[in-house]
Design a protein that fits this description.
This protein has 502 residues and is of the alpha/beta class. Helices cover 37% and strands 21% of the residues. The protein has helices spanning 56-71, 73-76, 79-95, 97-108, 112-135, 173-186, 201-213, 231-236, 250-260, 285-297, 317-330, 349-364, 420-428, 443-452, 485-492; strands at residues 20-22, 24-26, 29-31, 35-40, 47-53, 141-145, 151-160, 163-167, 190-194, 220-222, 243-247, 267-270, 275-279, 307-313, 368-371, 391-394, 411-417, 435-439, 457-460, 479-480, 493-501. The protein binds nicotinamide-adenine-dinucleotide (NAD).
Length: 502
């Protein structure tokens, strides 16, 4: 692979930039890979980057660099020094927000406004939240009194896990990466990051930003590549890894669990979902329909928390169907830099093929298509992109595959219900268990239903409103463990109990 000196991500979205070469980032240096792979822009299919895929040697070097950094000055840094550093990282992210927005938009095609307000804003917030958490973390301590009169002071000290593998997907690349990276660093770990092959740019740029903020070389290393038989698998099977934190598909989580099993390493998994919303007849209908449109179509439906099943009390079924179909039809697909654009393309042609496969299956299963259902013709040079129409189905039930498997696109299904018990049973009838939303004006019912949802996150009359200190994660196929606030700290540290006889 030819060498080059810059690791900067895609520079601009307005005029198509020349393809960038994105290298691995190891011990503070850009490092060539074993081969290059193409990264195309999902807006129009143009080539935007050639990415250096890490092989055995590069992954080895990255893990070794992380281990050396752990044993160097980073490992001796006080919590106060670390929190100051993390806040500095947040400040540099804010200052270099335009570059990060460009990187994120180039890789994903999402609207610039979304990248700025959601992805990049949350990146700096993640670093500040992690700094706050670790700065205020307490320790368990117990004064022990034994029946024979002996007394002892027990207290726990928290130590970092060590070298943590951080493996993340493409849908909210920087947001999800920093959600894991910031607490891992706050807890004193060093990391090797494997961003998605679909979104290598913002991780590469973030590595530069961390260095600029003063994070020592080797503390954060980035290896590029694919999952199976590539950098992802090389990392999770590497004997030098002390734990894996992963966000992605449930089947990948299962593969990673098998990969780390021989060495019994801890894992934290945030996986897929087939999330339900329940709409009662007493709900504020306008707010519910607007909320459902957002929870179904934000980021072109490519958010793990997106709603793919909506159960509606029969009395208002037709009103919700008409209202949501109208909202879906009003979404504006277009260029990311156009402020009027609400909805970008899917991440890739391969992902669009998968989603279109579900569109065909839904028809076979008897769906009525109330909105969308196909590929739009947009003109303006966009038809080489992986665009798809925001779609709404009725006529399916929980026996259909389209109601049981995660589609991960801008599509949702409406199903009527008659009683509260039935609504809860329908919502919980899934192998997943990530998130649920209850729409009702009866707050007692809201609490009652929300608590019975078999999920990690249960919203009432809102969606994706997050307090970064609250637990985030899923049950069933949707994950293992919780992150957020002290929950993150619990995963990223190993407590040692000290018992002193008094
Ligand atoms: P994916 O599982 O295909 O890939 C995620 C990451 O894992 C990528 O970096 C990929 O290269 C890597 N990978 C793939 N196979 C691997 C292997 N065998 N060993 C090691 N690494 C491997 O997921 P995706 O398609 O990138 O993302 C979409 C999925 O992520 C959806 O299922 C979505 O629900 C889920 N997701 C979950 C959350 C959450 O918080 N629960 C958040 C966002 C996305």
């Amino acid at each position: 692979m030819p060498t080059q000196t810059t690791t900067s991500a895609v520079a601009a979205t307005a005029a198509p930039p020349a393809p960038t070469r994105l290298r691995n980032f190891i011990a503070g240096e850009p490092v060539d890979g074993v081969r290059g792979f193409d990264k195309t822009n999902p807006v129009d299919g143009s080539l935007i980057a050639v990415v250096h895929e890490a092989g055995v040697d590069e992954v080895d070097r990255a893990v070794a660099a992380a281990r050396a950094a752990l044993e160097g000055p980073w490992g001796r840094m006080t919590v106060l020094e670390r929190t100051r550093l993390l806040r500095r990282v947040a400040d540099v992210i804010d200052r270099r927000a335009d570059e990060l927005v460009a990187a994120e938009v180039g890789d994903t095609g999402k609207p610039e406004t979304l990248a700025r307000d959601l992805d990049v804003a949350r990146a700096s917030a993640n670093f500040r939240a992690a700094a706050d958490t670790v700065a205020s973390a307490g320790l368990d301590s117990f004064l022990t009194e034994m029946p024979d009169g002996r007394r002892a002071l027990n207290y726990a000290v928290r130590k970092p896990l060590g070298v943590v593998a951080v493996i993340v997907p493409w849908n909210l690349p920087l947001l999800l990466l920093t959600w894991k990276l910031a607490p891992a660093l706050a807890a004193g770990n060093t990391v090797v990051v494997k961003p998605s092959e679909e979104t290598p740019s913002s991780a590469t740029l973030l590595a530069e930003i961390l260095m600029e903020a003063g994070v020592p070389a080797g503390v954060v290393n980035v290896v590029h590549g694919f999952g199976s038989r590539s950098a992802g698998e090389l990392l999770t099977t590497h004997p030098g890894i002390d734990g894996v934190t992963f966000t992605g598909e449930s089947s990948t989580g299962s593969a990673i669990m098998r990969a780390v099993a021989p060495r019994v390493r801890p894992v934290s998994f945030e996986l897929g979902g087939k999330n339900a919303a329940v709409v009662f007849a007493d709900a504020d209908l306008d707010a519910a329909i607007a909320g459902l449109a957002r929870s179904s179509y934000l980021n072109t439906g490519q958010v793990c928390l997106c709603t793919e099943r909506i159960y509606v009390e029969r009395a208002i079924f037709d009103d919700v169907a008409a209202g949501l179909a109208e909202q879906a039809g009003r979404l504006r697909l277009g260029r990311p830099e156009d402020p009027a654009t609400t909805t970008g393309p899917l991440i890739s042609q391969a992902h669009r093929d998968k989603v279109l496969g579900y569109f065909a299956l839904a028809r076979e299963e008897g769906a009525t298509v109330l909105a969308g259902g196909g590929v739009p013709t947009l003109g303006d040079g966009l038809d080489g992109g992986s665009w798809i129409e925001p779609t709404l189905w009725t006529g399916l039930d929980n026996t259909h595959r389209t109601m049981r498997e995660e589609v991960f696109g801008p599509v949702t299904s409406l199903v009527p219900f008659d009683t509260e018990e039935q609504a809860i049973a329908l919502a919980n009838d899934t192998d997943y268990g990530l998130a649920a939303v209850t729409w009702t004006s009866d707050l007692t019912r809201g609490h009652r239903v929300a608590q019975r949802m078999r999920v990690g996150m249960s919203w009432v009359n809102t969606w994706y409103l997050r307090d970064l200190r609250s637990p985030f994660g899923g049950v069933g196929l949707s994950g293992v463990g919780r992150e957020g606030g002290r929950h993150s700290l619990e995963f990223y540290t190993e407590p040692t109990n000290v018992c002193v006889q008094l």
